[in-house]
Design goal:
With 431 residues, this protein is an all-alpha fold. Helix content is 77%, strand content 0%. The chain is globular and about 70 Å long.
Length: 431
């Protein structure tokens, strides 16, 4: 009988130990990032504005000095990077176009700069035209081939992208390694992608190149997150911020860890609010909308969604938010036909597997299940490893009574819940 009396205590002890073991580990600490939320100034922005003033005065005094235009343009590009203000991106384009026209599109570096501006605007076909123009001139061929790889990847011309990647092959070159990492990530080999990105980081550290270190740390933050290495992801974002306290992308990465891994909506929102006070882009409203959805706060969810669309309406973002728009519109049966219209435009802009996924998803949401399946089978299956694309694929299979095809995707998605976010927990379980 004495043994029986001890049993509840043993059960309690086992449950207590088990409970302690399964409680998610706290990764983030306010003390690590608090100072980056309350910055009073941005040295990069101040420097860029001073440079613009300086070179603009010189250009006004000597309008025949065309080289000044590119210098002014690069500083407007910096302003766009740090503030998110789309007007700065368009000002960069205007200055680079003027410069290229003055040179009669003969200066390769200026052509490439305009092509990169077009990439930022999601004007990929125009970027490709310029990249090919630069290649035809022939000067600085390797730099042009790097640009061509980037554009071809955006357009889904993967065979052409690989040709350009092989043409710049050099295992000791930072630019080659980060593109090799991107290629392996595209193929779904994240482990190899991380290995090459780490090699690139080592080069950046050996050269003590601040710009390259920031780039490699922030991208490794993403890669580690996708691989479920959340501590490493967090550490990489902190390293980025230590070098550039105003690098809002890294703060956004930390906000995602706090939301998706630690499920702390209030703290994630606090960080996002701090970011948007100095770097304001529409996607932050969508993130706040997702957080509100997780909190089952319908009014906040709608309020932030409306703020997102209001910002799009008040600023001309061109095709930059097409993907987001499709996903938002497709979620609501009343606006699903709008999603389809935009998805068709996106496929025309960049016929990648991810764009075709948006098209298939839109057809599914207007009830054309067979059409969705046909597009997915022809253009998506085996060609994209993005978790959201895989979820859409599973839903398309489910709608077409192909339950056996859903099972392996569901298993795979279970390990991608951090990347997908908390709102997908239930969705994946219901597959």
């Amino acid at each position: 009988m004495k043994t029986l009396k001890k049993l509840p205590f043993l059960v309690f002890t086992i449950l207590f130990i088990f409970g302690c073991e399964t409680k998610p580990k706290q990764i983030t600490q306010k003390a690590d990032y608090e100072k980056y939320l309350t910055l009073k100034d941005n040295k990069s922005v101040t420097f860029a504005q001073n440079e613009i003033d300086f070179w603009q005065k010189k250009f006004d005094a000597a309008p025949n000095q065309i080289s000044y235009l590119s210098l002014i343009a690069s500083n407007y590009s910096t302003l766009f990077e740090y503030t998110g203000n789309i007007k700065n991106l368009y000002k960069t384009e205007e200055l680079l176009t003027k410069s290229n026209e003055a040179y009669d599109y003969s200066k390769v570096s200026t052509i490439r700069s305009l092509a990169r501006n077009y990439i930022s605007q999601h004007r990929f076909k125009e970027a490709l035209t310029l990249a090919n123009k630069a290649l035809a001139i022939g000067e600085g061929k390797k730099e042009t081939q790097k640009l061509l790889f980037d554009v071809q990847m955006e357009l889904g011309n993967y065979a052409e992208a690989v040709k350009n990647l092989n043409a710049i092959r050099d295992m000791n070159d930072f630019d080659f390694l980060i593109r090799l990492a991107k290629w392996n990530d595209h193929k779904g080999d994240l482990k190899t992608a991380i290995t090459f990105m780490e090699k690139a980081r080592t080069i950046a550290e050996k050269e003590n190149n601040k710009v390259l270190k920031i780039w490699s740390y922030s991208n490794l933050g993403d890669f580690y997150g996708h691989a479920g290495k959340i501590q490493e992801s967090y550490d990489s974002y902190l390293k980025t911020l230590a070098l550039d306290p105003n690098y809002s992308y890294a703060l956004k990465g930390i906000a995602w860890i706090i939301f998706s891994k630690e499920r702390n909506s209030n703290e994630a929102n606090r960080i996002i609010d701090a970011i948007t006070s100095r770097h304001n882009t529409p996607d932050f409203y969508l993130l706040k909308s997702h957080i509100a959805q997780f909190e089952a706060n319908k009014s906040e969810e709608i309020k932030n969604k409306n703020a997102y669309f209001s910002m799009l309406k008040n600023n001309n973002y061109g095709a930059m938010y097409n993907k987001y728009n499709v996903l938002v519109y497709a979620d609501d049966k009343q606006s699903a036909s709008k999603a389809l219209e935009i998805a068709k435009i996106e496929v025309n802009h960049r016929p990648t597997p991810d764009s075709y996924d948006l098209l298939a998803w839109s057809y599914l949401n207007i009830g054309q299940n067979k059409k969705a399946l046909e597009i997915a089978q022809n253009h998506v299956v085996g060609k994209s490893h993005e978790p959201k694309v895989q979820y859409h694929l599973a839903m398309i299979y489910k709608a077409n009574n192909l339950a056996q095809k859903v099972i392996p995707i569901k298993e795979e998605l279970s390990s991608s819940l951090y990347e997908l976010g908390p709102n997908f927990d239930k969705k994946v379980n219901q597959l």
